[in-house]
Amino acid sequence: MNPANKNSAAALWTILILCGTLVPSAIARVESELASPDKRKVSVEKAASLAKEAAVDALAPETPNPFAPPGFELTDAEEAAAAAAAARQAAATSGGTSGVVMALSDRQILEAIVSKIVPSGSINLGGKPLLLFGKKFVRTGSHFTVTYKGSDYDLELTDIDASTFTLRYNHEEITRPIKPGKSP
Fold first, then answer.
1. pTM score, two decimals?
2. What is the pLDDT of residues 68-89, one digit of tens each?
3. Which of 115, 99, 101 is nearest to 148 (CA)?
4. Could you tell me where the DSSP H helices lie in 28-147?
5. pLDDT of residue 29 exceeding 70
6. CA–CA separation, 46 vs 124, rounded Å?
7. How many CB atoms lie within 10 A of CB 90?
């Protein structure tokens, strides 16, 4: 017998043996891993009852919207000013005898806040003055928020000289000396 025929005969026998072994297992019936519809019925009914939406009562029209309360569009400074004005009005209508603490004026608020702001110095960079707070530089015209007694106030730095700086809150301005390391 020719060696090429020998190799092809061996290959043919190998294929027949493999087919004889693998084909019956491939043809064999595969059982489903899914439970029968009768067994699944209980689970499906329970899932349907859990997924059912409950009817929600309508909210009263006067219920405030938590995502956009009245005055939501106001800035922090405007909100603080509105709260102060409301407190002043409440004190005025009650005659001031109800134990309500009088709200501070914008000037009083600014004076109290500025006494807590202590710059470390000033420099002139490129012809423009900068106020120094540690490693931070603040330019003229910059706005920054200061928290004082639980309220946020929007202040504007309006002027910087060699020895003084001026801050504005609403329409009130105050000029303070720059004293590095010392409270004014």
1. 0.42
2. 777 777 777 777 788 888 887 8
3. 115
4. 37-51, 76-93, 106-114
5. no
6. 75
7. 13
Q: pLDDT higher for 53 or 22?
A: 53
Burial class (CB in 10 A: 0-12, 13-18, 19+), 132: middle
Using only the alpha carbons of the chain, give its radius of gyration. 41
Neighbours of 134 (CB within 10 A): 7
Decide which of 33 and 98 is more confident. Answer: 33
- With H, G, I as helix, E, B as strand and everything else as coil, classify residue 140: coil
Residue 104 sits at φ, ψ, to 5 deg, of -80, 150
- Tokens representing residue 9 in the block: 């005969």
pLDDT score, position 183: 47
Q: Per DSSP, what are the bridge partners of residue 132?
A: 121, 137
Rounded to an integer, the average pLDDT of 10-26 is: 70
The type of residue at 165 is: F
Q: What angle do CA 166, 106, 184 make, to 5 degrees?
A: 45
